[in-house]
Design a protein that fits this description.
Length: 48
């Protein structure tokens, strides 16, 4: 689920960089946040 969100944000970021310069900056920040959250979850592991 988290990787799907990161992938969607990546696509939106690429579109933002190409099409909308201002929107690209906002989506870039969201993409970085998603990557940080993904890395934290990856290193923590799942506690079931």
């Amino acid at each position: 689920m988290l990787f799907t969100i990161a992938l969607v944000l990546l696509v939106l970021w690429l579109l933002g960089v190409v099409v909308f310069k201002v929107t690209g900056a906002v989506i870039h920040v969201l993409l970085v946040a998603a990557i940080v959250v993904g890395l934290v979850q990856l290193f923590r592991g799942r506690r079931v």
